[in-house]
Amino acid sequence: MQTTDTITRSEPSRRRALNFSAGPGALPEAVLEEVREELPVYKNIGTSVLEISHRSPTYTEIAESARTRFRNLLGLGDEWHILFLQGGASLQFYQVPLNFLPDNGSADYLITGSWSKKALKEAKMVGAANVAATSEEDEFTYIPKRGEWKLGTDASYLHFTSNNTIYGTQFHETPNVDVPLVCDASSDFMSRPIDVARYGLIYAGAQKNIGPAGVTVVLVKDDFLGKRRGSLPTLLDYGTHTAKLFHTPPVFAVYMVEKVLKWLEGLGGIGAIEDLNNRKARLLYERIDRTGFYTGTAKADSRSKMNVTFRLPNETLDAAFIKAAADRGLIALKGYRTVGGIRASIYNACPLEAVEALVELMDDFEKENG
Ligand SMILES: *Cc1c(COP(=O)(O)O)cnc(C)c1O
Predict the structure, then answer these.
(1) Are residues 257 and 307 in the same domain?
(2) What is the pTM of this model?
(3) Residue-wise DSSP of 13-40
C-alpha cells in the first residue's frame, strides 16, 4: 500500500492527513493521483469523464469494467445483477421492502444499531416487519447470538447490517437462516469475502469503503428479483435498473469505484485486503486491551474490523486525545455524537502505517496521561 505523500509533498500545510473518517472515508492515494492525472482529458476523448454522455461508449466501458471487477473479486455468477443507484443506502431501507415485502407476508430484521433501526422504520411503512433480535437494550454493544433470534414463519427475507458503523460491531458469521439474506453492507463491503449463495440482495453506499459519495452499489440475484411485487414506481423498481440504463447514473462516482476496484485487484483481491484488515484491527484492539487506560466499547466477540470504538478514562481525556491526534496529522477520530469516545475507521484504504501511527500515539498519550 502506498505510503509516500506524493500528491502534496512540496507543501507541508497541504500534506495529506492520516484520515480515520467514518464516511465519506479515505480513498487510496494512488486512485486520487490517477483521477487527477486524467481529469481534464480522459484517455483520447477530448473531455473529462464529468462531461460525457452516460450513453457513450466511454461510460459504458467504465461501468462494464466496474461490474466485471465486482464479479471477479466477489465470485459473482451471471445470476447476479450489479446496479449503480442513487439515494444512498438510506433509500435502500425503503426500496427493499417496497419490492420484496409482500402484502400478506413479512420480513425479519436484526436490529444492531442506528442504521438497522432506520431500515426497520421504512419497512414498517410498507408492511409487517418482525424484529427477530435486537441489542438496543445494551446500547448496541453486541451482535445477538443466532440461538436467540425469533424468526417469523412467513418472512420473505432477513435484513441485517453486516457492520455497525456507529457502534463498532460486526457480524463475524453469515446469518444462517432458511430465507434469502438482504444485507446493508455499506461499511464493510469489499473488506472480506461474502458467501453470496445465501443472499438475495446486498447494498452499500460507496462512500465508506469503495469510492466517493453519490453511488449505491446494489447486487441482486435474479431469482430473488423475480419475487418482487408488481406496479412499483418506476425508479424504485429494481427491475427498471436491471432491464436497462433508465436514467443518468452517477457517472463520476462509478468511474472512481472502478478505479478503487482496480486498486483492490492490484493488492491481491479480497483475500489480501481481508488479511490486511485483520492485521490492522488486531494491532489496534491489542493496544486497547494491553492496559486498562483504553476501553473498547463493543463486546469482544462482536468487535468490528472497520470501525474501532473505544474510550479513555473520561471525556476530558477523550477530547485531549483527539486534539493530540490532530497535532500529529491523525484526523476524524471523534466518536459518533450519540456514542462519544473515539472511533477509528480503518477501512480498506486506511494503510497499516496509519494504524501504527495511531497505536504509537496511544502509547505516548497513555504515558503522559495514564
Ligand atoms: C453510512 C451508512 C448508511 C447511510 O448511507 P447513506 O448513503 O448516507 O444513505 C447506511 N448504513 C450503514 C451501515 C452506513 O454505514
Answers:
(1) no
(2) 0.96
(3) GGPPPEE--SSS----HHHHHHHHHHSS
